[in-house]
Design a protein that fits this description.
- This protein folds into two domains: 8-246, Aminohydrolase, N-terminal nucleophile (Ntn) domain (Glutamine Phosphoribosylpyrophosphate, subunit 1, domain 1); 263-436, Rossmann fold (3-Layer(aba) Sandwich).
- Helices cover 31% and strands 25% of the residues.
- It has a seven-stranded antiparallel sheet with strand order 3-2-4-1-10-9-11. The chain has a six-stranded antiparallel sheet with strand order 5-6-7-8-12-13, covered by helices on one side. Strands 17-20-21-22 form a four-stranded parallel sheet, with helices on both faces.
- The longest helix is centred in the middle third of the chain and has 15 residues, at 267-281.
Length: 471
Protein backbone atom coordinates (compact mmCIF):
# COMPACT_ATOMS: atom_id res chain seq x y z
CA UNK A 1 0.00 0.00 0.00
CA UNK A 2 1.28 3.47 -0.85
CA UNK A 3 0.24 6.48 1.18
CA UNK A 4 -0.03 9.86 -0.49
CA UNK A 5 -1.04 13.28 0.63
CA UNK A 6 -3.42 15.42 -1.33
CA UNK A 7 -2.71 18.31 -3.74
CA UNK A 8 -2.10 22.02 -4.06
CA UNK A 9 -4.22 24.53 -5.98
CA UNK A 10 -3.27 28.00 -7.14
CA UNK A 11 -4.87 30.76 -9.19
CA UNK A 12 -4.24 34.35 -10.27
CA UNK A 13 -6.38 37.10 -11.81
CA UNK A 14 -5.45 40.63 -12.91
CA UNK A 15 -7.20 43.51 -14.64
CA UNK A 16 -4.67 43.44 -17.50
CA UNK A 17 -2.54 40.78 -19.23
CA UNK A 18 0.35 39.58 -17.06
CA UNK A 19 2.85 36.74 -16.98
CA UNK A 20 0.21 34.54 -15.39
CA UNK A 21 2.09 31.31 -16.13
CA UNK A 22 5.24 32.61 -14.47
CA UNK A 23 3.31 33.61 -11.34
CA UNK A 24 1.64 30.21 -11.22
CA UNK A 25 4.96 28.44 -11.60
CA UNK A 26 6.35 30.31 -8.60
CA UNK A 27 3.23 29.47 -6.63
CA UNK A 28 3.50 25.78 -7.54
CA UNK A 29 7.13 25.73 -6.40
CA UNK A 30 5.93 26.87 -2.98
CA UNK A 31 3.26 24.12 -3.00
CA UNK A 32 5.53 21.36 -4.32
CA UNK A 33 5.46 19.62 -0.93
CA UNK A 34 1.75 18.96 -1.48
CA UNK A 35 2.26 16.99 -4.67
CA UNK A 36 5.19 15.58 -6.59
CA UNK A 37 3.51 13.36 -9.17
CA UNK A 38 2.29 15.91 -11.71
CA UNK A 39 1.48 19.56 -12.21
CA UNK A 40 -0.30 21.82 -14.65
CA UNK A 41 -1.11 25.42 -15.57
CA UNK A 42 -4.00 26.77 -17.66
CA UNK A 43 -3.75 30.41 -18.78
CA UNK A 44 -6.77 32.41 -19.90
CA UNK A 45 -5.79 34.63 -22.86
CA UNK A 46 -8.91 36.72 -23.54
CA UNK A 47 -11.16 33.68 -23.27
CA UNK A 48 -8.77 31.28 -25.01
CA UNK A 49 -7.34 28.62 -22.70
CA UNK A 50 -3.69 27.64 -23.18
CA UNK A 51 -2.41 24.81 -21.01
CA UNK A 52 0.51 22.56 -20.23
CA UNK A 53 0.30 19.55 -17.90
CA UNK A 54 2.60 16.59 -17.35
CA UNK A 55 4.00 14.11 -14.86
CA UNK A 56 6.95 15.29 -12.82
CA UNK A 57 8.12 18.05 -10.51
CA UNK A 58 7.43 21.71 -11.26
CA UNK A 59 11.04 22.25 -12.34
CA UNK A 60 10.82 19.30 -14.74
CA UNK A 61 7.46 20.16 -16.29
CA UNK A 62 7.80 23.94 -16.53
CA UNK A 63 11.13 24.57 -18.17
CA UNK A 64 12.07 27.97 -19.52
CA UNK A 65 10.96 26.99 -23.02
CA UNK A 66 7.58 25.80 -21.79
CA UNK A 67 6.95 28.95 -19.77
CA UNK A 68 7.95 31.19 -22.66
CA UNK A 69 5.39 29.44 -24.86
CA UNK A 70 2.50 30.71 -22.73
CA UNK A 71 0.82 33.95 -23.80
CA UNK A 72 0.20 36.78 -21.38
CA UNK A 73 -3.19 36.36 -19.76
CA UNK A 74 -5.51 38.00 -17.27
CA UNK A 75 -5.97 34.86 -15.21
CA UNK A 76 -4.73 31.32 -14.70
CA UNK A 77 -5.39 28.19 -12.67
CA UNK A 78 -2.69 25.76 -11.57
CA UNK A 79 -2.31 22.49 -9.70
CA UNK A 80 0.29 20.16 -8.27
CA UNK A 81 -0.87 16.64 -7.64
CA UNK A 82 -0.65 13.55 -5.57
CA UNK A 83 -3.33 11.08 -6.56
CA UNK A 84 -5.85 10.15 -3.89
CA UNK A 85 -8.58 9.03 -6.23
CA UNK A 86 -7.08 7.89 -9.53
CA UNK A 87 -3.72 6.62 -10.63
CA UNK A 88 -0.65 8.62 -11.55
CA UNK A 89 -0.87 9.15 -15.30
CA UNK A 90 -1.10 12.06 -17.72
CA UNK A 91 -4.86 11.81 -18.12
CA UNK A 92 -5.27 12.60 -14.41
CA UNK A 93 -3.10 15.73 -14.53
CA UNK A 94 -4.92 18.89 -13.51
CA UNK A 95 -6.40 21.44 -13.97
CA UNK A 96 -9.10 19.54 -15.85
CA UNK A 97 -10.44 21.44 -18.87
CA UNK A 98 -14.01 21.21 -20.12
CA UNK A 99 -15.57 22.64 -23.27
CA UNK A 100 -19.33 22.75 -22.98
CA UNK A 101 -22.30 24.43 -24.60
CA UNK A 102 -21.92 27.61 -22.55
CA UNK A 103 -18.17 27.99 -22.79
CA UNK A 104 -14.93 26.72 -21.27
CA UNK A 105 -13.96 25.75 -17.76
CA UNK A 106 -10.72 24.74 -16.03
CA UNK A 107 -10.91 23.10 -12.61
CA UNK A 108 -8.23 22.34 -10.00
CA UNK A 109 -9.16 20.34 -6.90
CA UNK A 110 -7.52 19.59 -3.57
CA UNK A 111 -9.15 16.90 -1.45
CA UNK A 112 -11.23 13.80 -1.98
CA UNK A 113 -14.98 13.29 -2.35
CA UNK A 114 -16.32 10.70 0.05
CA UNK A 115 -19.25 10.01 -2.31
CA UNK A 116 -17.15 9.98 -5.49
CA UNK A 117 -17.94 6.38 -6.47
CA UNK A 118 -21.68 6.92 -5.95
CA UNK A 119 -21.72 10.12 -8.00
CA UNK A 120 -19.64 8.68 -10.81
CA UNK A 121 -21.81 5.58 -11.06
CA UNK A 122 -24.94 7.74 -11.38
CA UNK A 123 -23.30 9.87 -14.08
CA UNK A 124 -22.15 6.81 -16.02
CA UNK A 125 -25.64 5.32 -15.91
CA UNK A 126 -26.89 8.56 -17.47
CA UNK A 127 -24.43 8.33 -20.34
CA UNK A 128 -21.41 10.22 -19.04
CA UNK A 129 -18.11 9.07 -20.51
CA UNK A 130 -15.10 9.62 -18.25
CA UNK A 131 -11.58 10.14 -19.54
CA UNK A 132 -9.82 10.05 -16.17
CA UNK A 133 -10.09 8.11 -12.94
CA UNK A 134 -9.92 11.24 -10.80
CA UNK A 135 -12.88 12.43 -8.74
CA UNK A 136 -12.05 15.93 -10.01
CA UNK A 137 -13.64 14.95 -13.32
CA UNK A 138 -16.77 13.99 -11.40
CA UNK A 139 -16.90 17.50 -9.92
CA UNK A 140 -16.37 18.98 -13.38
CA UNK A 141 -19.22 16.88 -14.81
CA UNK A 142 -21.65 17.95 -12.11
CA UNK A 143 -20.74 21.65 -12.39
CA UNK A 144 -21.06 21.47 -16.18
CA UNK A 145 -24.43 19.74 -15.94
CA UNK A 146 -25.71 22.46 -13.60
CA UNK A 147 -24.26 25.21 -15.81
CA UNK A 148 -26.57 24.22 -18.67
CA UNK A 149 -29.54 25.59 -16.71
CA UNK A 150 -27.87 27.95 -14.21
CA UNK A 151 -27.62 31.70 -15.00
CA UNK A 152 -23.92 31.82 -14.06
CA UNK A 153 -20.95 29.57 -13.40
CA UNK A 154 -20.96 30.46 -9.70
CA UNK A 155 -24.61 29.48 -9.43
CA UNK A 156 -23.79 26.19 -11.15
CA UNK A 157 -21.02 25.58 -8.61
CA UNK A 158 -23.33 26.42 -5.73
CA UNK A 159 -25.89 23.92 -6.99
CA UNK A 160 -23.18 21.30 -7.43
CA UNK A 161 -22.05 21.77 -3.83
CA UNK A 162 -25.44 20.46 -2.68
CA UNK A 163 -24.45 17.10 -4.21
CA UNK A 164 -20.76 16.88 -3.33
CA UNK A 165 -19.68 15.30 -0.04
CA UNK A 166 -16.25 15.19 1.48
CA UNK A 167 -13.20 17.37 0.98
CA UNK A 168 -12.79 19.85 -1.83
CA UNK A 169 -10.95 23.13 -2.10
CA UNK A 170 -11.44 24.31 -5.67
CA UNK A 171 -10.08 26.84 -8.14
CA UNK A 172 -12.38 27.15 -11.13
CA UNK A 173 -11.73 29.35 -14.16
CA UNK A 174 -14.25 30.43 -16.80
CA UNK A 175 -13.57 32.82 -19.70
CA UNK A 176 -14.59 35.80 -17.55
CA UNK A 177 -14.16 34.78 -13.91
CA UNK A 178 -11.86 33.06 -11.47
CA UNK A 179 -13.74 31.30 -8.68
CA UNK A 180 -12.64 29.45 -5.58
CA UNK A 181 -14.66 27.40 -3.11
CA UNK A 182 -14.12 25.38 0.04
CA UNK A 183 -16.34 22.52 1.14
CA UNK A 184 -18.75 23.23 4.04
CA UNK A 185 -16.61 21.24 6.50
CA UNK A 186 -13.43 23.07 5.43
CA UNK A 187 -11.36 19.87 5.40
CA UNK A 188 -8.58 21.35 3.26
CA UNK A 189 -7.07 24.83 3.51
CA UNK A 190 -7.61 27.63 1.02
CA UNK A 191 -6.73 31.32 1.22
CA UNK A 192 -6.30 34.38 -0.97
CA UNK A 193 -4.27 37.56 -1.09
CA UNK A 194 -3.28 40.47 -3.33
CA UNK A 195 -0.05 41.81 -4.75
CA UNK A 196 0.95 45.48 -4.66
CA UNK A 197 -0.04 45.84 -8.32
CA UNK A 198 -3.54 44.48 -7.75
CA UNK A 199 -3.22 40.84 -8.79
CA UNK A 200 -5.46 38.57 -6.72
CA UNK A 201 -3.93 35.23 -5.79
CA UNK A 202 -5.65 32.07 -4.52
CA UNK A 203 -3.60 29.29 -2.92
CA UNK A 204 -3.87 26.17 -0.80
CA UNK A 205 -1.39 27.65 1.69
CA UNK A 206 -0.30 31.13 2.66
CA UNK A 207 3.35 30.26 1.94
CA UNK A 208 2.47 30.31 -1.78
CA UNK A 209 1.07 33.84 -1.48
CA UNK A 210 4.39 35.03 -0.07
CA UNK A 211 6.24 33.29 -2.90
CA UNK A 212 4.61 35.61 -5.46
CA UNK A 213 4.70 38.74 -3.33
CA UNK A 214 1.03 38.72 -2.39
CA UNK A 215 -0.20 39.94 0.97
CA UNK A 216 -2.46 37.50 2.78
CA UNK A 217 -6.04 38.78 3.04
CA UNK A 218 -7.85 35.89 4.68
CA UNK A 219 -8.76 32.22 4.54
CA UNK A 220 -11.70 31.16 2.44
CA UNK A 221 -14.38 30.12 4.91
CA UNK A 222 -15.86 26.62 4.91
CA UNK A 223 -18.74 26.57 2.43
CA UNK A 224 -17.79 29.93 0.91
CA UNK A 225 -17.64 30.68 -2.82
CA UNK A 226 -15.49 33.65 -3.90
CA UNK A 227 -15.92 35.12 -7.38
CA UNK A 228 -13.10 37.26 -8.80
CA UNK A 229 -14.09 39.23 -11.88
CA UNK A 230 -14.98 42.61 -13.36
CA UNK A 231 -17.13 43.45 -10.32
CA UNK A 232 -14.29 42.87 -7.89
CA UNK A 233 -14.49 40.11 -5.30
CA UNK A 234 -17.92 38.74 -4.44
CA UNK A 235 -18.57 36.30 -1.62
CA UNK A 236 -21.41 33.80 -1.70
CA UNK A 237 -22.12 32.26 1.68
CA UNK A 238 -25.23 30.13 1.22
CA UNK A 239 -23.29 26.99 2.13
CA UNK A 240 -21.44 28.51 5.10
CA UNK A 241 -22.36 27.05 8.50
CA UNK A 242 -24.26 24.21 6.80
CA UNK A 243 -22.01 21.70 8.51
CA UNK A 244 -19.56 21.74 11.44
CA UNK A 245 -16.06 22.89 10.59
CA UNK A 246 -13.60 19.99 10.39
CA UNK A 247 -10.16 21.07 9.20
CA UNK A 248 -7.87 18.06 8.76
CA UNK A 249 -5.51 17.95 11.75
CA UNK A 250 -2.86 16.31 9.58
CA UNK A 251 -2.40 19.66 7.85
CA UNK A 252 -0.79 20.93 11.05
CA UNK A 253 1.04 17.70 11.85
CA UNK A 254 2.52 16.91 8.44
CA UNK A 255 1.03 18.24 5.20
CA UNK A 256 1.52 21.99 5.37
CA UNK A 257 4.75 23.94 5.27
CA UNK A 258 5.80 25.29 8.70
CA UNK A 259 5.79 28.88 7.42
CA UNK A 260 2.11 28.66 6.48
CA UNK A 261 -0.76 29.95 8.58
CA UNK A 262 -3.99 27.94 8.31
CA UNK A 263 -7.26 29.24 9.69
CA UNK A 264 -5.39 31.69 11.87
CA UNK A 265 -2.96 29.18 13.36
CA UNK A 266 0.74 29.02 12.52
CA UNK A 267 1.78 25.54 11.43
CA UNK A 268 5.16 26.09 13.09
CA UNK A 269 3.46 27.03 16.37
CA UNK A 270 1.20 23.97 16.17
CA UNK A 271 4.18 21.65 15.78
CA UNK A 272 6.06 23.32 18.62
CA UNK A 273 3.01 22.72 20.80
CA UNK A 274 2.93 19.06 19.77
CA UNK A 275 6.48 18.71 21.04
CA UNK A 276 5.66 20.45 24.30
CA UNK A 277 2.67 18.15 24.86
CA UNK A 278 4.85 15.09 24.19
CA UNK A 279 7.45 16.27 26.67
CA UNK A 280 4.76 16.70 29.30
CA UNK A 281 2.86 13.45 28.66
CA UNK A 282 5.70 11.15 27.56
CA UNK A 283 8.88 12.23 29.37
CA UNK A 284 12.11 10.26 29.23
CA UNK A 285 15.66 10.63 30.56
CA UNK A 286 17.93 11.47 27.63
CA UNK A 287 20.93 13.50 26.49
CA UNK A 288 19.73 14.89 23.16
CA UNK A 289 16.50 15.61 21.27
CA UNK A 290 16.61 15.32 17.50
CA UNK A 291 13.90 15.53 14.86
CA UNK A 292 13.38 13.65 11.63
CA UNK A 293 13.64 16.22 8.82
CA UNK A 294 11.58 18.08 7.89
CA UNK A 295 8.23 17.89 9.64
CA UNK A 296 9.65 16.44 12.86
CA UNK A 297 12.05 19.32 13.50
CA UNK A 298 9.60 21.84 14.94
CA UNK A 299 8.10 19.29 17.33
CA UNK A 300 11.61 18.26 18.41
CA UNK A 301 12.40 21.88 19.24
CA UNK A 302 9.19 22.10 21.27
CA UNK A 303 10.05 18.89 23.14
CA UNK A 304 13.52 20.19 23.92
CA UNK A 305 12.28 23.51 25.25
CA UNK A 306 9.66 21.87 27.47
CA UNK A 307 11.90 19.07 28.78
CA UNK A 308 15.16 20.96 29.15
CA UNK A 309 16.99 18.27 27.15
CA UNK A 310 19.33 19.89 24.59
CA UNK A 311 18.15 20.08 20.99
CA UNK A 312 20.56 19.02 18.28
CA UNK A 313 20.89 18.05 14.63
CA UNK A 314 21.38 14.29 14.46
CA UNK A 315 20.01 13.52 11.01
CA UNK A 316 20.82 15.17 7.70
CA UNK A 317 18.37 15.03 4.82
CA UNK A 318 19.36 14.71 1.19
CA UNK A 319 17.41 17.65 -0.21
CA UNK A 320 17.19 16.11 -3.66
CA UNK A 321 15.03 13.18 -2.57
CA UNK A 322 11.27 13.61 -2.16
CA UNK A 323 9.23 12.91 0.95
CA UNK A 324 9.08 9.16 1.58
CA UNK A 325 5.66 9.18 3.20
CA UNK A 326 4.07 10.34 -0.03
CA UNK A 327 6.53 9.11 -2.64
CA UNK A 328 4.56 7.13 -5.22
CA UNK A 329 7.19 4.51 -6.01
CA UNK A 330 10.53 3.24 -4.78
CA UNK A 331 9.74 4.22 -1.22
CA UNK A 332 12.16 1.86 0.55
CA UNK A 333 15.02 2.80 -1.79
CA UNK A 334 14.39 6.49 -1.14
CA UNK A 335 14.52 5.97 2.63
CA UNK A 336 18.01 4.49 2.30
CA UNK A 337 19.42 7.54 0.57
CA UNK A 338 17.20 10.23 2.07
CA UNK A 339 18.76 10.46 5.54
CA UNK A 340 22.15 10.03 7.15
CA UNK A 341 23.17 10.26 10.81
CA UNK A 342 25.78 12.62 12.24
CA UNK A 343 27.98 10.27 14.24
CA UNK A 344 29.70 12.93 16.34
CA UNK A 345 26.32 14.23 17.50
CA UNK A 346 24.70 10.93 18.51
CA UNK A 347 27.53 8.56 19.46
CA UNK A 348 27.19 7.29 23.03
CA UNK A 349 24.09 9.38 23.74
CA UNK A 350 20.54 8.66 24.82
CA UNK A 351 18.44 10.07 22.02
CA UNK A 352 14.85 11.30 21.93
CA UNK A 353 13.85 10.90 18.29
CA UNK A 354 10.82 12.96 17.22
CA UNK A 355 8.91 12.03 14.07
CA UNK A 356 5.55 13.25 12.79
CA UNK A 357 3.80 9.91 12.33
CA UNK A 358 4.12 6.16 11.98
CA UNK A 359 2.12 4.50 9.22
CA UNK A 360 3.73 1.13 8.47
CA UNK A 361 6.84 1.42 10.62
CA UNK A 362 9.34 0.71 7.85
CA UNK A 363 10.70 4.24 7.68
CA UNK A 364 11.02 4.47 11.46
CA UNK A 365 12.86 1.18 11.61
CA UNK A 366 15.37 2.35 9.04
CA UNK A 367 15.99 5.61 10.92
CA UNK A 368 16.54 3.74 14.18
CA UNK A 369 19.08 1.51 12.38
CA UNK A 370 20.91 4.58 11.08
CA UNK A 371 21.23 5.97 14.60
CA UNK A 372 22.32 2.61 16.04
CA UNK A 373 24.99 2.31 13.38
CA UNK A 374 26.15 5.83 14.29
CA UNK A 375 26.63 4.74 17.91
CA UNK A 376 23.48 5.99 19.69
CA UNK A 377 23.29 4.40 23.17
CA UNK A 378 19.47 4.56 23.52
CA UNK A 379 16.73 5.64 21.12
CA UNK A 380 13.37 6.75 22.47
CA UNK A 381 10.89 7.50 19.71
CA UNK A 382 8.23 10.13 20.31
CA UNK A 383 5.59 10.71 17.65
CA UNK A 384 3.96 14.14 17.30
CA UNK A 385 0.68 12.55 16.21
CA UNK A 386 -1.62 9.93 17.73
CA UNK A 387 -1.56 6.37 16.35
CA UNK A 388 -2.81 6.21 12.75
CA UNK A 389 -5.69 3.72 13.18
CA UNK A 390 -8.38 4.36 10.59
CA UNK A 391 -8.66 4.95 6.83
CA UNK A 392 -9.15 8.45 5.46
CA UNK A 393 -11.73 9.40 2.83
CA UNK A 394 -10.87 13.10 2.58
CA UNK A 395 -7.54 13.32 0.79
CA UNK A 396 -4.96 11.09 2.47
CA UNK A 397 -4.67 7.95 0.39
CA UNK A 398 -5.25 5.39 3.13
CA UNK A 399 -8.36 3.48 2.14
CA UNK A 400 -7.61 0.40 4.26
CA UNK A 401 -6.41 -0.19 7.81
CA UNK A 402 -4.70 -3.47 6.94
CA UNK A 403 -1.20 -1.97 6.74
CA UNK A 404 -1.52 0.53 9.59
CA UNK A 405 0.94 -0.88 12.11
CA UNK A 406 -0.57 0.85 15.15
CA UNK A 407 -3.95 -0.71 14.40
CA UNK A 408 -2.56 -4.18 14.98
CA UNK A 409 0.32 -3.75 17.45
CA UNK A 410 0.94 -2.02 20.76
CA UNK A 411 3.55 0.75 21.11
CA UNK A 412 5.83 -1.72 22.89
CA UNK A 413 5.54 -4.21 20.04
CA UNK A 414 6.18 -1.50 17.43
CA UNK A 415 9.23 -0.28 19.36
CA UNK A 416 10.63 -3.81 19.44
CA UNK A 417 10.03 -4.25 15.70
CA UNK A 418 11.83 -1.01 14.93
CA UNK A 419 14.65 -1.59 17.38
CA UNK A 420 13.82 1.41 19.58
CA UNK A 421 14.10 1.42 23.37
CA UNK A 422 10.69 3.00 23.76
CA UNK A 423 7.88 4.50 21.70
CA UNK A 424 5.05 6.87 22.61
CA UNK A 425 2.45 8.81 20.65
CA UNK A 426 0.77 12.17 21.10
CA UNK A 427 -2.45 11.68 23.10
CA UNK A 428 -5.45 12.03 20.79
CA UNK A 429 -7.25 14.19 23.35
CA UNK A 430 -4.51 16.83 23.08
CA UNK A 431 -5.00 17.53 19.35
CA UNK A 432 -7.02 20.66 20.02
CA UNK A 433 -3.98 22.13 21.78
CA UNK A 434 -2.09 22.05 18.47
CA UNK A 435 -4.60 24.08 16.51
CA UNK A 436 -6.19 26.07 19.30
CA UNK A 437 -9.57 24.75 18.15
CA UNK A 438 -11.80 21.74 18.52
CA UNK A 439 -13.12 22.19 14.97
CA UNK A 440 -10.93 19.43 13.57
CA UNK A 441 -11.19 16.20 11.63
CA UNK A 442 -9.13 13.55 13.40
CA UNK A 443 -10.95 10.53 11.95
CA UNK A 444 -7.68 8.83 10.97
CA UNK A 445 -6.84 8.74 14.69
CA UNK A 446 -10.20 8.29 16.42
CA UNK A 447 -12.58 6.94 13.74
CA UNK A 448 -15.06 9.82 14.18
CA UNK A 449 -15.96 10.58 10.57
CA UNK A 450 -17.72 13.87 9.83
CA UNK A 451 -19.51 12.37 6.81
CA UNK A 452 -21.15 9.08 6.01
CA UNK A 453 -18.57 6.36 5.41
CA UNK A 454 -18.71 5.49 1.70
CA UNK A 455 -19.93 2.03 0.76
CA UNK A 456 -17.32 1.82 -2.01
CA UNK A 457 -13.98 2.84 -0.51
CA UNK A 458 -11.78 1.85 -3.43
CA UNK A 459 -9.78 4.82 -4.67
CA UNK A 460 -8.82 3.34 -8.05
CA UNK A 461 -12.06 1.72 -9.15
CA UNK A 462 -11.55 2.71 -12.79
CA UNK A 463 -8.11 1.08 -12.98
CA UNK A 464 -9.39 -2.01 -11.17
CA UNK A 465 -12.12 -2.44 -13.77
CA UNK A 466 -9.61 -2.18 -16.60
CA UNK A 467 -7.37 -4.70 -14.85
CA UNK A 468 -10.25 -7.15 -14.50
CA UNK A 469 -11.17 -6.77 -18.18
CA UNK A 470 -7.60 -7.42 -19.37
CA UNK A 471 -6.98 -10.53 -17.25
Amino acid sequence: MSVHEECGVFGVIADKPIDAAGLCCRGLYALQHRGQESCGIVVNDDGVFVSHKDLGLVSEVFTGDVLSSFPAGTMAAAHTRYGTTGASNRSNCQPIEVNHQKGHMALAHNGNLSNAAELRSALELNGAIFHTSSDTETIAYIVTKERLTAPSIEEALSRAMKTLEGAYSLVLMSPQKLICARDPHGFRPLCFGRTDDGVYVIASESCALKAVGAEFIRDVEPGEILIFGRDGVISRREHCAEKPKKLCIFEYIYFARPDSVIDGRSVHAARLEAGRVLARTEPVQADLVIGVPDSGLDAALGYSRASGIPYGIGLIKNKYVGRTFIAPEGRSDRVKIKLSAIEDAVRGKRIVLIDDSIVRGTTGGRIVSLLREAGAKEIHMRISAPPFLFPCFYGTDVDSDSDLIARHRSPEEIAAMMGADSLAFLPVESLCELSGSRDLCSACFDGRYPTKIPADTRKNRFEQKLSELTK
